[in-house]
Structure formats: C-alpha cells, structure tokens
C-alpha cells in the first residue's frame, strides 16, 4: 500500500530564522515538539515523514538527515516550503501565530491542494488573534478574561497585562501595576496591535484537545508553571496531565468546539482558574509544548489520533494516567 508522505515544518528549527540568530528558548521548545511529533509518526507504518531543518540544528537530529531538507542562510525559507509542499501528500506545520506565519503556511498548503494536518487557515485567523478570539468566546457566552484594545484603554488602578493581538505565549507581554510603568511601556508600542487584560490571580492551566467539525475530544489537563522576570512571565515548565479527573473541563471543551467549528486536529486551550470559575485565555490551533508529554502521560500516540481524524473519529485508548513534568527553560528538557 502506498504510504502517505508528510512534510513536517517546525518553524523555529526548520529554517524560519535561517537569516538571523536562533532564539535559544524557542529553539529548545520547537525541538521538543518536533522530536515528539517525529517519534509518534515513526510508529505509524503507513506514513513516510520528511522535515525541513535549519542547518544549525543538524546535530540535534542526526538520525533524521536522510529525510531532511536542509535550510541554510542562503535559501528563502518560505519559497522552500512552497516548493516542498508540492512534493508531498500532506503538510504538518508548527509555527507561531505572530506575523500571520502559521496562517500563511496553512493557506499555502490549502492552495496546493494538500492534506493539512492542523486547523485550516480560517480557524488560525480567529484563534491566532486574541481580539477575535475574545469576540468569538463572548458571542457564545464562554467565560473569558475581559479584554480591551490598548488604543481604547485608559489606565485605572490595578494590575494589567499588555499583550500583542497575535503574540505566542508570553512573548512581548508586560505586567504593569502603576501609571508610570504603563506610560513607559506603551510609549513605544503600536497601540493598534496590543490588548489590555486585568491580571487575574489564579491557577494557570491548559487543555490538550482534538477537534473536528464542531466536536472535541479532551486528552488531558495541564498545569503551567511560570517565572515572573522583569515584569514579564516566562514559561518554566508544564505538568502534563496534572489531574487524573478531567470531567470538570468537558463542558467547556464542548462549548469551544461549538463556538469554533473550524478547529481541526490538535489544539491547546490556555485557562485561568479562580476559586469560582474557569476562564478561557487563548486558543492555540497547533501543537503546544504540552504535546511533548502526552505519550508518556497517557500512553496515547497523538500523531496517530490526528491522522485518524482524516477518516473518522480518533482512536483514543489511554494505557496509563500519570502526570509528567516537562522542563521548558532549563538547559535540559526532560519528561520525567
């Protein structure tokens, strides 16, 4: 039987920064996700996998070189993605939403008529924009963090988070607690591209999910661990599957699935949990760092489950149920 040929493009390690310095923390995180995805796909006999790989990352994936397209500083990464997309049956991009990078890659795959193994560009256009996400959630009466556009915001006492419409995680986000700090930070920002949200104390969690045509499957809930450095949050680690009982999240998952029927494949949902409510913070229409611990935590090959969505419902039969800690900021990243 003919194998499905899949091109995997993890943007950070795959050449997205081939003409500049690699951001160390993002490269570590990207490599974690790439390795986990490749490990899952390698266990599926019906597929053959090819990757784009930044020339500086070759030593990190020596076993993968036979099926790698090396992207050096002389190449145009986007043009290479377009060229390579035409050679394969399916494309699995992992990329930031910032700068419409992920949306553009999805659009390219769709134009090429290839199987896209993530949410379509139409879903990324909404989920990748925090303001549009906020509007969609409010429209469907889903509890979310109150959000204002920075251009419309007048500072009042309290703690506030300033973040870009399309930033990834805590990238380019700032915590401000007084008017002077607010004025200093916002002086050089394009106010039309930033949001303001109240800084809500609570547990920062996330959901690892699968979606298809208005339906959702909840894999596990994760606890996110942050450091606050110079008024900016930094993700330090994640406890994947931190609780064995995820029943409290199922209604929320179903509500998000109905509110955003465009979502498809693996999706991460970031939450803030207070003593009396669970608030949706953002929706990530791509692999997230929590993906790295899923197999060890649940005994589920998530890559296989995503491919199962092409034909029907995903086959999800967990063989274990344990928490797994993933280090994000350290020199070593372990699932242990």
TrEMBL record:
Transmembrane segments: none annotated. Keywords: ATP-binding, Nucleotide-binding. Residues 129-311 form the ATP-grasp domain. The keyword RNA-binding does not apply. It holds the Pfam family ATP-grasp_3. GO terms for molecular function: ATP binding; metal ion binding. InterPro entries: ATP-grasp, ATP-grasp_PylC-type, MfnD, MfnD_preATP-grasp. It comes from the Bacteria. This is ATP-grasp fold domain-containing protein, DUF201-type. It comes from Methyloglobulus morosus KoM1.
